[in-house]
From TrEMBL, chain A:
Keywords: Cell membrane, Membrane, Transmembrane, Transmembrane helix. It comes from Paracoccus tibetensis. This is Multisubunit potassium/proton antiporter, PhaD subunit. It holds the Pfam family Proton_antipo_M. One of its GO terms (cellular component) is plasma membrane.
From TrEMBL, chain B:
It comes from Paracoccus tibetensis. It is found in: Cell membrane. Belongs to the CPA3 antiporters (TC 2.A.63) subunit C family. Keywords: Cell membrane, Membrane, Transmembrane, Transmembrane helix. NCBIfam families: PRK09094.1. It holds the Pfam family Oxidored_q2. Coiled coil: none annotated. This is Multisubunit potassium/proton antiporter, PhaC subunit. The chain crosses the membrane at residues 26-51, 72-98.
Length: 544, 115
């Protein structure tokens, strides 16, 4: 029974989302509770998988053979340290944005909760799958859901940003397909582990074709990850998305990062092959360029939503550069700290997206926002849509709590002690300095950019904070408890993360060890035990 | 045959990219369609080109695999077609919505101001 837990993160949101499609939006309350149960179950399953990986040390890896086919023949799901970590992160942010959307946002459009569940399903599937084409399918699932969610609430800005977002991502998907098919044409396999074994043995004549396939895949992932110069669509799309959607989108870019990390560690990290360290410089340079782009973008931004979007690019760029350093033979410590930083910064950016709306509500108030949406829907006063007041009680001293959350987010994103941003950045700088005699120009520019980006973030966020909290004459706008609670929980998690830094760092350290010891993944898949199926009477065929 | 196929893929891709970079949303969607046709043909060709070879092998016995077509790219193409069809339909809806909101079919929602 316990082995089937691996597929649960895909099945739970799939069933919940499909079930909700059967009912129309008058059943919103029931849909909310169903989504909440689904997301809660997801969190439990993800934590269980995380604990299993943690207990097994750096060798903890689980396989699930779909349809009980032996390994390279069919699709295989793999859960290891990295996957389990990403699953937990997805479930936490998913749960927080679901609760947040209960206050106002879930009423602003159709099928919000179903789309949300399908997005979770696509994310979980992308983190679990061990097959390239299946990765494409889950990418499409999460993208299709994200198109719907981005347009949630409608309005001119959203539709325009949505059109750009969809066009860019459709083009990226086509590049993804080209890459996958090239790789299949050269190696004859789509299974990542099988690919990792075959790729070094490809004859030198075919190597350029294979590399071209990987490069096309890489471009597709970099578009998803929001790396410069492929990220100009990102700030507009993310800042025009509804607040809870923006929060869950904070993890969408991490899917691109995950795919790059997974594939590059599997394929290009092994010593002594024609592919060793391939593309490392490109990743470093693009990562550094993204950090610089995000730095200028943050400083130039006038609104909090845009700053949050640039914070997403900043976090992606930093991790991307570190993946490049790790591929180029840098120490594991840098990657360990980078993964820690990634968890912290993803939680912080998600929180920032949740804070955008309560903070900027003074301008028009919640009634104005609802009126706008009602006008867009136009067709008559539907009482289920046009309810004037948001659900749930107002939060006493809401604005104060919001300002505290905002301050803590700023500290995490800027990398000031004692919160996780600081620990992560310190570790990365330590790692970059570790090979000090050999430290190159790239190492130094990475350190400089890391520190400068922290400075830029704190300047921009402090400016917005002063305008919002000190510049407003009267703290009149009401803030709902349901809107503050998720942000508070995420902030508390950030606090726990910095108190338990050692444990988290040990876990990410094990993650990096497991990633570097690629034989675990590359050969483990073939040793995965098939379940014995009781043979049906009358079928003469032998189970091979 | 190889020449014709590669020529077709090349022409489709080139026209697709050109249309994708145009400012009208209808041109963009046609460009994406052409690109997806090119990609589908490309995936198909990655299973090697064969003439009159069946994709499904008969049951049992020794089989010479070179006399059969690779069934996997065909399955992949099918998936890719379905997905690109669905996303194109969605894009069409968004395009019409954008046209309704802005009153123009420019991808940025406003015409470029002429000097």
């Amino acid at each position: 029974m316990i082995q089937h837990l691996i597929i649960a993160p895909i099945l739970i949101p799939f069933i919940a989302g499909a079930l909700m499609l059967l009912y129309d939006d008058r059943q919103r309350s029931a849909k909310f509770w169903l989504s909440l149960i689904s997301a809660g179950l997801l969190l439990l399953v993800a934590i269980r998988l995380l604990l299993e990986a943690k207990e097994a040390g750096s060798g903890g890896i689980g396989f699930y053979l779909l349809g009980n086919w032996a390994a390279p023949m069919a699709i295989v799901l793999v859960v290891d340290h990295l996957s389990a970590m990403m699953l937990v992160l997805t479930a936490i942010i998913g749960l927080a944005s679901l609760v947040y959307s209960r206050a106002v946002w879930h009423r602003q459009g159709q099928h919000y909760f179903s789309l949300f569940q399908f997005l979770l399903m696509g994310l979980n599937g992308a983190f679990l799958t061990g097959d390239l084409f299946n990765l494409f399918v889950f990418f499409e699932v999460l993208l299709a859901a994200s198109y719907g969610l981005l347009l949630h609430g409608s309005g001119q800005a959203r539709v325009r940003a949505g059109m750009h977002y969809i066009a860019v991502n459709l083009a990226a998907s086509l590049l993804f397909l080209l890459g996958v098919s090239l790789i299949y044409g050269v190696t004859g396999t789509l299974n990542m582990a099988h690919l990792a074994n075959l790729a070094p043995m490809i004859p030198a004549v075919d190597q350029p074709l294979l590399k071209m396939g990987f490069a096309l895949l890489g471009v597709a992932f970099l578009i998803k990850a929001g790396s410069w110069p492929l990220s100009f669509w990102l700030p507009n799309a993310y800042m025009s998305a509804a607040a809870p959607v923006g929060a869950i989108f904070a993890i969408l870019t991490k899917v691109g990062i995950y795919a790059i990390l997974r594939l590059s560690m599997l394929l290009f990290a092994e010593e002594g092959t024609g592919l060793t360290g391939w593309g490392a410089e490109v990743l470093i340079l693009l990562g550094l360029a993204s950090v610089a782009f995000a730095l200028f973008g943050t400083l130039a931004s006038q609104s909090l939503g845009r700053i949050a979007a640039y914070a997403v690019i900043l976090s992606s760029g930093t991790v991307l550069a570190v993946i490049g350093f790790a591929l180029a033979g840098g120490g594991g410590w840098m990657l360990t700290a980078a993964l820690y930083y990634m968890i912290g910064s993803t939680l912080a950016t998600a929180t920032l997206f949740l804070l955008v709306e309560p903070m900027s509500r003074d301008d028009g108030g919640i009634a104005a926002m609802l009126a706008l949406t009602a006008e867009i829907y136009g067709t008559g006063k539907d009482e289920s849509l046009g309810a004037e007041t948001p659900d749930g009680p107002a939060m006493p001293a809401g604005l104060t709590l919001i300002s505290v959350c905002f301050g803590i987010c700023a500290i995490v994103l800027a990398g000031l002690p004692p919160l996780p941003g600081f620990v992560g950045k310190l570790g990365m700088i330590q790692g970059a300095l570790a090979d000090a005699p050999a430290a190159t120009f790239l190492n130094w520019s990475f350190i400089a950019l890391l520190i400068l980006s922290g400075l830029g973030t704190i300047i921009a966020l402090a400016r917005i904070g002063i305008q919002t909290f000190w510049g407003s004459d009267e703290a009149s706008s009401s803030v709902m408890a349901l809107e503050v609670a998720p942000a508070l929980v995420l902030i508390a998690l950030l606090g726990v993360m910095s108190i338990k830094s050692e444990a988290v760092l040990r876990y990410t350290g094990n993650t990096v060890e497991a990633l570097q010891d690629r034989s675990l993944y590359a050969y483990g898949v073939f040793g995965a035990a098939r379940t014995t199926v009781p043979m049906l009477p009358g079928t003469g065929e032998e189970q091979p | 045959m190889e020449l014709i196929l590669s020529f077709a893929i090349g022409v489709l891709t080139a026209s697709g990219i050109w249309l994708l970079l145009r400012p009208r949303s209808f041109q963009v969607i046609i460009g994406l369609c052409l690109l997806s046709y090119a990609v589908n043909l490309f995936i198909f060709s990655m299973g090697r080109l064969t003439l009159g070879a069946p994709a499904i092998m008969p049951k049992g016995g020794f089989i010479d695999p070179t006399r059969y077509a690779d069934p996997l790219p065909q399955a992949l193409v099918l998936t890719a077609i379905v997905i690109s069809f669905a996303t194109t339909a969605l894009f069409l809806v968004v395009m019409i919505a954008a046209r309704g909101f802005t009153g123009t079919d420019h991808v940025d929602g406003k015409e470029r101001e002429l000097p």
